[in-house]
Amino acid sequence: MTYSAEQPIPADWTTTELGVLCEIQSGPGHLTNPASRSNAGIPLLRPMNIGYRGQIVHADLTFLPQEAESKVDQYRLRPGDIVCARTGDPGRAARITDAEAGWLFSGNLLRLRLRAPEWQGYLLHYLGSPVAKNWFEQASTSTVGIPSVTVAALSKLPVNLPPHAQAAAITEILEGLSEKIAVHEEIARTTAELRDLISPAMFTGAMSPHWN
């Protein structure tokens, strides 16, 4: 079944635009192009640092040199900010934690700073939902085969808002499911590592399959 934000909602819900909920800021493309980057300094988030479960991935970080600090203060990230991919996989989003406070974001990301912080968790899950993904597919444009979304377009994303108590319950359920996914992914990862560790020994006779 296909869902969209235009479908009827309960009478006690409201619909607003993302630009009403958030201040939307694009990253400083002129300061974060590859020629400006460094091997140390201020961490710079790129789309590859957004995990598909809404977490920030600290692997493969790049940096801006410390001397660029005075030019990028307005692009600093705060805990609770949401960073959203602008290109490649528009709408893929993650929430900034204390661990990323003060970091920067590239021109391929957008920063969503909520005017009402209590909606942070709900909005993060909303952006990853089929409702929002369907909207992004329709709103994105393509340049040289790479999908992208503009600040102006993203500000028009319709967001369905339930009463606060219901929003909190929705967020709690979805975060619980995300945690279960993370546990099962870790089990799958360690099981695959075990398979790859023992299979060469089994295929060469160094280990018997009849083990206790």
From TrEMBL:
Any one GO MF annotation of this record: DNA binding
Alphabetical keyword list: DNA-binding, Restriction system
Domain Type I restriction modification DNA specificity span(s) in chain numbering: 10-187
GO biological process, one term: DNA restriction-modification system
Xref: Pfam families: Methylase_S (PF01420)
Protein family per UniProt: Belongs to the type-I restriction system S methylase family.
Protein name: Type I restriction modification DNA specificity domain-containing protein
